[in-house]
Amino acid sequence: MTSARSFVLICTVGVLCFISYNMVRMPVLALFAESLGAGPERIGLIVSVSTLTGVLLKLPSGALSDIYGRTILLRIGVVAFGLPPFLYPFITDLNALTALRFAHGLATAIFAPSALATVAELYRERRGAALGTYTACTQSGALLGPFIGGYLVYTSGFPAAFVTAGVFGCAAIVLFYSLRLNVAPPRMQGRGLSAVTAEMWKGFTVVSRNKKVLITSSTDAAKMIANGALMAFLPLYGLSVGLNAGDVGLLFSVQAFTSFFSKPIMGRVSDRIGRQPLIVLGLMICAATFVCIPHVSFFPLLLVLSAGFGFGEAVVSSSSSALVADSSEFKTLGAGMGMQGTIMDIGHASGPLLAGILIAVMSYAGAFAVIAGLQLVAASAFWITMRQA
C-alpha cells in the first residue's frame, strides 16, 4: 500500500472510530448519567474518567509504538473503539458506568498516539497540512457523532444510540483488519522485557526534557479543560434554558463542523507562517467564545459561539501537533505524541471535574469565566517560554 493510500485508510478508520466514540460521549453520556441519578460532581467524574485512561497510557502507548511498530498498537486501539458501546445498554449503576468509561478510554489512549505518529512519518515535509487533515477527519466524528447520538436518544432512547455507536466501531475494525498500512518496521523484535523497559525509559527521558514539547502540550491541555467542561455541562445548561437533546447535539456538531473544515486550512497556514502565533490566537478565540456561553440562551447565538469555539480549537490543534512532531527526535516521535496526548488528557480530565466543582459552588457564568482565564494564562506562558527557548 502506498503512503497516500495508507493515509486515506488511517483517516477513514479515524472517522468511523470517532463517530462511534462521540456518539457515546456527548451529549448522550451526561444525559445517561443524569438519568441514573448522578449530580454535577458525579457527572463531571464520569465524563472525565475515560480521559484518565489516556493520562495513564498515552505516553507508554506512544513509546511502545516506537519500539514494536505502529500497526500492532493501532489494531488493539480500533478494537477498543468497537466493542465497549454494546455494553452500555446493560448499565444500571453509576459505579459500573464509571468503570466502563475507564475501559472505553483505552480506545483513544492506544490508538491516538500511534495514528498521529504514523501521519507525521508519512508526511515529514508537510506535517501541518497532513496532521490538520487527519485531525479534521477524527473531528468529523465529533461532527456526526453528537448529532446522531442526540437524535437517537431523543427519538428512540439510549439503547439505540449505544448499539448504533457499536456498529460504527465494528465497521472500523473490519476495514482496518482487511487492509495493510505502509509504515516503518518495528525497531525491536524478540527482545526481553528488560530491554523493552530500558528502551521505553530512554524515550520517556528524552521527551520529558524537551521544553518545546512540554509547553506546547500544555497549551493543548488548557484548550481541553474548556472542551471537557463543555462536553460535560453544555448538555445540562442547554436543557436548563429550554433546549432539547437534539438541539444540544446540534451545538456540538456545529462546533465540530467548524473545526473539521478549519483544521486542514489552518494546518497549511501553520506550515507557511509558523506554529506559535496561531497557537496563541487560537487560545484567545477559545477563551472569548467560552466565557460568553453561559450568558446566552438564544439558540442561534449559542450556535455561533459553538462554531467560534470550534474554530479556536482548530487553530490550536492544527499547529500544536505539528510543533510537537517538529520538536521531537525521530526515534521518539511516538513518545512525543504520547506525551502531548497525556498532558492534553490531563486537561481534558480536569475540565469536567473542575467545572463540576465550580458550578456546584458558584454558577455556570463564574465557572466558565475561571476556565476561560486559564486559557489566557496558558497563551501568555506559551508565548513567553517559546521566545526564551
Q: Which terms summarize this structure?
A:
single chain, about 400 residues, mainly alpha, Growth Hormone, Chain: A, 15 helices, globular
Domains counted in the coordinates: how many? Answer: 1
Order of helices and strands: HHHHHHHHHHHHHHH
Q: Which whole number gives the mean pLDDT?
A: 86
Task: State the shape.
Answer: globular
Biggest beta sheet attributes? none
Helix content: over 70%
CATH class: Mainly Alpha
Could you please describe the fold and organization of this structure?
The structure is a single chain. This protein is mostly helical and 389 residues long. The protein has a single domain (3-179, 192-388), classed as Growth Hormone, Chain: A, CATH 1.20.1250. Helix content is 84%, strand content 0%. It contains 15 helices and no strands. It has helices at residues 3-25, 28-35, 40-68, 70-82, 94-104, 106-122, 127-156, 158-178, 193-208, 211-240, 245-273, 276-292, 299-327, 333-361, 364-388. Helix 4 packs across helix 6 (106-122) and helix 6 (106-122) packs across helix 14 (333-361). The radius of gyration is 19 Å and the shape is globular. It starts with a helix and ends with a helix. The model has no long low-confidence stretch (mean pLDDT 86). InterPro entries: MFS (IPR011701), MFS_dom (IPR020846), MFS_trans_sf (IPR036259). It comes from Nitrospira japonica. Residues 6-389 form the Major facilitator superfamily (MFS) profile domain. This is Putative Multidrug resistance protein MdtG.
